[in-house]
Structure formats: structure tokens, C-alpha cells
């Protein structure tokens, strides 16, 4: 089954997994900044306790080299929509914007200093050959989100991509790039207003730092991602390009809920 036709209950997690399986997609998320690590689908209450019980979709440790050596953290809430090759769209979730804003505010209340909405657009095979991005069907949706996100000082990025199709499977990657930069696969519409990290987020990322730095002898480990296995309740550092099972218990990490 192609990612475009994946089951709705797994689509968001499967899409995040696919993004971090493809360097041209996830390398653009920091918008030119250097990353030390990315962590995916991390429970807010991991080692922190308290009343925050949802997950953070993506966390990154970044810095503005060579302008600064200071590390900072960014978080993303991910939403996935479908763009059909005829130019129509599905699962835009514009009616769920209030819920999305509540989720973003929860990230900030949790103590995240830099909160961004990442709208991923899965394009049906053939979309890019027949349409421009963004298609007209998205313009009102994007404008509405921009206004609300700007008012609350959240960041906003778009990430559209397409796979070709052979039989019932995906093949290749067709990434829409920002004008003038063929390596920039995200559309960075709105920067977040950055504040200082606060507890319990600061404690969570300290734990993630210690976990990451405590793993030795793995060349290029910053191209691996930190994930959390819900079956054995352990952090793992894996290469999402090649792995989808927990190294400890062999549970399928993609379909864990």
C-alpha cells in the first residue's frame, strides 16, 4: 500500500516516519540551522510526571552555527493532508483548527520555547506533473491558519512531497522545493517567537540529551533518531531509514498507538 492510501489511524505516524527516512525532507525542517538530534513521538510525561499526558510529535536540538554556538530546542505538531492529482484536497482539517491551536498551546504550556505547526501534504502520484503548489484549494486554508498562528506567535511550515507508484507501492521521491533553493523542501511561512525553555519540557530534553550523548561508538549518530517504544517503555536511537522495529523487543514502532 502506498503512503498516500495508508490507513487514516496510522497515517500521521507513518508520514513522520517516512519524512525521517528521507534526508532531503527532514534536513530542511531546521531551516538552515545545524541539528544535534531529532526525537520523534516522545511522551510529555516521560520522566516528568505531572498532568501533561500527550506526545510531542517532533523535538530537535539546534543551533545557528556559525552565528552562535548556543543550542536551543524546537518542537513541531504535525498534521497530514492529501493532495489528489486532479488538484483537489482531502483531510485538510480546517474544521479542526481549534483543536490544533489547543495542541500547540499545550506544547507552550509544557515549556517548549519554540512551537511550530508542520502541515505535511502527501501528494498523489501524478500531482506535481499537473499542478502547482500550493493549489488554489489550499489558499484560503493557509491564509486562515497564518492569521491564527501569527496571533499566537507560533511558527508555520509546509512540507509537500510525492512518490511515484509501481503496482501498490511507492517508488522514488518528488519533493517540491522553495523557489531559488533546490535543497529547501519546506515552505517556511512563519517563524515562531522564541521564549526560554521551562519545566517540565526542560527536564525532558535534558533526559533526551543524556540518552543521546551516552550512546558511544556509532558514527554519524546525528543521522539517527530518538524514538520511544511503548511496549518495552524505553528510548531507542535508530536509523528510521532502515529500521521500524524496536531493537529491544522487536515491536513495530510505526503502528504503536
Written description of the protein model:
- It is a single chain.
- This protein has 257 residues and is an alpha/beta fold.
- Strands 1, 2, 3, 4, 5, 6, 7, 8, 9 and 10 form a ten-stranded mixed β-sheet that branches.
- It is built from six helices and ten strands, in the order H-H-E-E-E-E-H-E-H-H-E-E-E-H-E-E.
- The chain has a single domain, classed as Trna Endonuclease, Chain: A, domain 1.
How are the elements arranged and paired?
Layout: H1 8-19, H2 23-26, E1 34-43, E2 55-63, E3 72-83, E4 89-90, H3 97-110, E5 115-123, H4 127-130, H5 136-151, E6 155-166, E7 169-175, E8 187-190, H6 201-213, E9 225-229, E10 234-238
Parallel strand pairs: 1-9, 3-5, 5-6
Antiparallel strand pairs: 1-2, 2-3, 3-4, 6-7, 6-8, 9-10
What's the total count of β strands?
10
Number of helices: 6
Overall radius of gyration = 18 Å
Secondary-structure element string: HHEEEEHEHHEEEHEE
Instruction: Pick out the low-confidence regions.
Output: none
Largest sheet: 10 strands, mixed
Number of domains: 1
CATH topology: Trna Endonuclease, Chain: A, domain 1
Mean pLDDT: 90
Proportion of residues in extended strands? 25-35%
| CATH architecture type | 3-Layer(aba) Sandwich
Instruction: Give the end-to-end Cα distance, rounded to a whole number of Å.
Output: 20 Å
Class from helix and strand fractions: alpha/beta
* Percentage of residues in helical conformation: 10-25%
Briefly, what CATH class? Alpha Beta
Characterize the overall form: globular
Amino acid at each position: 500500500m502506498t503512503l498516500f492510501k495508508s490507513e487514516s489511524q496510522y497515517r500521521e505516524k507513518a508520514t513522520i516516519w517516512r519524512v525521517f527516512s528521507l534526508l532531503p525532507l527532514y534536513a530542511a525542517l531546521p531551516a538552515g540551522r545545524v541539528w544535534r538530534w531529532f526525537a520523534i513521538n516522545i511522551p510529555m510525561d516521560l520522566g516528568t510526571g505531572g498532568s501533561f499526558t500527550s506526545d510531542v510529535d517532533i523535538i530537535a536540538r539546534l543551533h545557528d552555527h556559525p552565528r552562535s554556538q548556543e543550542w536551543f530546542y524546537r518542537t513541531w505538531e504535525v498534521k497530514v493532508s492529501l493532495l489528489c492529482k486532479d488538484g483537489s484536497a482531502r483531510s485538510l482539517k480546517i474544521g479542526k483548527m481549534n483543536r490544533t491551536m489547543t495542541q500547540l498551546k499545550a506544547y507552550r504550556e509544557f515549556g517548549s520555547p519554540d512551537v511550530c505547526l508542520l502541515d505535511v501534504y502527501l501528494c498523489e502520484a501524478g500531482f506535481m506533473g499537473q499542478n502547482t503548489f500550493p493549489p488554489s484549494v489550499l489558499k484560503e486554508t493557509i491564509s486562515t491558519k497564518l492569521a491564527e498562528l501569527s496571533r499566537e506567535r507560533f511558527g508555520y511550515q509546509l512540507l509537500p512531497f510525492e512518490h511515484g507508484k509501481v503496482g501498490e507501492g511507492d517508488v522514488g521521491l518528488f519533493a517540491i522545493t522553495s523557489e531559488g533553493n533546490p535543497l529547501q523542501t519546506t515552505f517556511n511561512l512563519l517563524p515562531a517567537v522564541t521564549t526560554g525553555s521551562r519545566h517540565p519540557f526542560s527536564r525532558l530534553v535534558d533526559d533526551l540529551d543524556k540518552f543521546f550523548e551516552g550512546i558511544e561508538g556509532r558514527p554519524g549518530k546525528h543521522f539517527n533518531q530518538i524514538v520511544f517504544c511503548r511496549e518495552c517503555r524505553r528510548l531507542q536511537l535508530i536509523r528510521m531509514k532502515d529500521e521500524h522495529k524496536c531493537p529491544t523487543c522487536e515491536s513495530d514502532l510505526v503502528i504503536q498507538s
